[in-house]
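Case study 2.
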Amino acid sequence: MTASTAQNDPGDVIMVNVLVAVLVVVPVILGAQLPSAPAGDGKREFTVSGCLLRSGYAGYQIDEAQVDAIDGKSTVVPQGAPSATSGPPVPKKWILEGGGNLGARIGEKVQVVGRSDWQPPSSGAAADEPPNRTPRLAVQSVKTIAAKCS
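Prediction:
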């Protein structure tokens, strides 16, 4: 073997570097596109609107709540449309978890998107089943929809 054949061709070195970069970058990009919440966690995405109130020292809650969407599907009946048969009762209060300091928004009508494991009560609920607890919503986003609650 001569000294000239033992050296790497500059074109080969560049090709190897490009290949390594592709193998590192592509999985990172694909990983960033995966959903952030585990699919099997039993939680669904809820969009809830209502009056933002303080709950305890540093907590917040939505009062007079209306569930606008579940898993991105609207639950609001358009005006003038015939009302569908009444579904299960929806909680009028939701405890918010996370979302940062919402103190400046107290008293505003807000729309909150978050995840919760809340399920409507079953129609054949047993008499000894525990009472419904106030559902908790892990906040993903908050949007003001009116300056004051009405």
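The first strand starts at residue 44 and ends at 55.
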